[in-house]
Amino acid sequence: MTISSALSNAMTGLRAAGTNSETISANIANAMTPGYGVRTVSLSSSQIGGVSVDGIVRNVNPALLADRSLAQSALSNATDRTTFLRGYEDALGTPDNPNSLSSRIAEFESSLITASSRPDAPERLEVVVDAARDLTQLISSASRKIQESRSEADRNINLQVNQLNTALAGVKELNQQITRTQTLGGDTSALQDSRQALVEEISEIVSVRQIPRDRGQIALYSTGGAILLDGGAAEVEFSAMNQVTPFMTLSGGQLSGLTLNGYEIRTDSMRGALGGGSLGAQFEIRDEFGVDAQTQLDAFTRDLIERFQDPAVDATLAVGDAGLFTDAGIAFDPLNEVGLSERVAVNAAVDEKQGGEAWRVRDGINAIVQGDVGDSRLLQTLSSTMTAKRAPLSGSFGSGAFSSSNLLATLTSKLGADRAQAEQGQTFASTQFNELTQLVLADGVDTDQELQRLLLVEQAYAANARMISAADEMMQTILRI
């Protein structure tokens, strides 16, 4: 080997060592950076001697990343669903909560029994009115909570659609940059890291599958079959509402669905084209969970109002007159049930806060003057009305007959079962995502291994530097001869 060839070999070794040290330093610095792929330097023997740097290799497990993306989508979906059901259950309250709807029903029934034992006591009649008012206020509050959740879901859909469009445009741009960089022979690792971060952002919103394409590009397809990115990026459109009311539904045309490149797509939980992630969960909350919750609560409220609107219960009522509980001050109309739970109120005739008199609870809603203060027959009838079994005329409670408290128990028990099932699904999704994340991290930067590699690089650098130094000494010796 000539001195010049030895010097050339040593110089290529120094360059390789320098590239290796830079790569190792970048790995260690980004050990905790999400989406970072471990880099290694690809080396080969040069035909003219020495070592050649062929490029930087980004080491990732595509199958593992794909599984984690799907798990991330499932976790986002399950978390949003569980959050809604928990919020609605909190609005109704659990039976052990003194401020729950169950407790308010029990307090109202108890106040009727107490008042019937002393119908001449005005304060006991006032307690009945107060208990009835507290009951209606809690029902109205729960109904407003449902619509607030639906309104929030509508706003979240708008935000996520904008975020999705921005992320898809970003992936498209990075695809093009990666192709250009590859063509010029540059390192695309940082660009791939950025693209993977955007793909994970998209996965939280929509469940997607990543398909490799030529020249380093990728395509994105939703698990529902929609093409989100394949060369060009899809454009998703949505029209948000400021406030969602019980009368607004997707099927009725008052609420917006989604369009993909100008074409309407399904958004339901069964066959939604962009389901599986947080976006699908928001549509479920707005168009399925929220609508069903409102329907069930309205059905319960209807049953409550109709129990006291019957002239057979209160002889002072005529057909079409409002009873103790009203629909915003008037009698309930079966054709106007939607949103009833938000409008329910105590009849102004018995409510002193609305100019009424509490003694009408004892003598009849439409009584003009007080009757016998010792007459407890109406109070006893009202109490019996609450415990009487009747089949609800709306809702999905089945064909059985229920007392008012039994009907509420059926509603809350189903809600509790749905919430427990949602929490179970969330726990499974969270466990799966965490396990896959740990596997991805295990394939990530191992700082101990990187430091060991750095020591070897330092040794190689020192050896090549010593070779250059020896070659220099030899050249100086020859020159002095």
Inertia-based shape: elongated
Number of domains: 2
Derived structural class: alpha+beta
Estimated share of beta-strand residues: 5-15%
Low-confidence stretches: none
Radius of gyration computed on alpha carbons: 36 Å
Q: Roughly what percent helix?
A: 55-70%
Keywords: Bacterial flagellum, Cell projection, Cilium, Flagellum, Secreted
Protein name: Flagellar hook-associated protein 1
Family: Belongs to the flagella basal body rod proteins family.
Organism: Roseobacter fucihabitans
Explain what this protein looks like in three dimensions.
The protein has 2 domains: 3-60 and 445-480, no CATH class; 66-433, no CATH class. The chain is built from 11 helices and 11 strands. The chain has helices at 3-29, 62-92, 101-117, 122-183, 189-205, 278-308, 340-343, 360-363, 377-387, 404-442, 447-480, and strands at residues 38-45, 51-59, 208-212, 218-222, 227-230, 232-233, 236-237, 258-260, 263-265, 325-327, 344-346. A 4-stranded antiparallel sheet has the order 3-4-5-6. It has a 3-stranded antiparallel sheet with strand order 7-8-9. Strands 1-2 form a two-stranded antiparallel ribbon. The longest helix has 62 residues, at 122-183. The two termini are 21 Å apart.
Short account of what is shown:
InterPro entries: Flag_bb_rod_N (IPR001444), Flg_bb/hook_C_dom (IPR010930), FlgK (IPR002371), FlgK_helical (IPR053927). This protein is of the alpha+beta class and 481 residues long.
